Amino acid sequence: MTDKEARRSKWSAEPVTEGEWAGWYRRAAGNSFESLTGPFYWRTDVPSGLRTAFRAEPRHMNGGGFMHGGCIMTFADFALFALARPVLKGLYGVTATLNGEFMGSVYTGDLVECEGEVVKEGGSLVFVRGLVTTSGNPVLSFSGVIKKIKPRG
Asked: Which is nearest to 109 in space by CA: 49, 46, 57?
């Protein structure tokens, strides 16, 4: 397997068939940052077209007992790319900007969800916005820009 094939297989979608996440997708197992911070999931059979989610665990919490802001922003970055996936059309991308406004807290056991949209796609940039919620309450409003890049090799 070439390096390029290995990178592609590492990021492929894997359907979940059992448990709480049955009917959702996740990235194939690998040594990615997401595998350390998530797991994060997505599904496309929702009215908005895409929803991402994960379950808050004790390891996601800060010293105050609620979710660390860095964890929420990591999830927002995952959602940024999940939302942009249809317009990336097989290209890779890097986060050029990610801005967020925190509006609420997340506690251990909470279901954390995100929906959003691609606002505009340009030649090399994709503009995205989203809202992270738990129990229907807003936690983080974010916007970001992805710079499209071609895969190496």
From this structure: 57
Q: What is the phi-psi region of residue 49: left when phi exceeds 0, alpha when psi lies from -120 to 50, beta otherwise?
A: left
The 8-class DSSP code of residue 68 comes to -
Least confident of 2-6, 58-62, 94-98: 2-6
**Residue type (1 letter), 5:** E
Tokens representing 36 are 């350390």
Enumerate the β-bridge partners of residue 53. 41, 113
**Is the previous residue joined to 15 through a cis bond, with omega within 30 degrees of 0?**
no
Rounded to an integer, what distance in angstroms lies between the CA atom of residue 7 and that of residue 68?
29
Q: What is the pTM of this model?
A: 0.89
DSSP structural state of residue 108: T
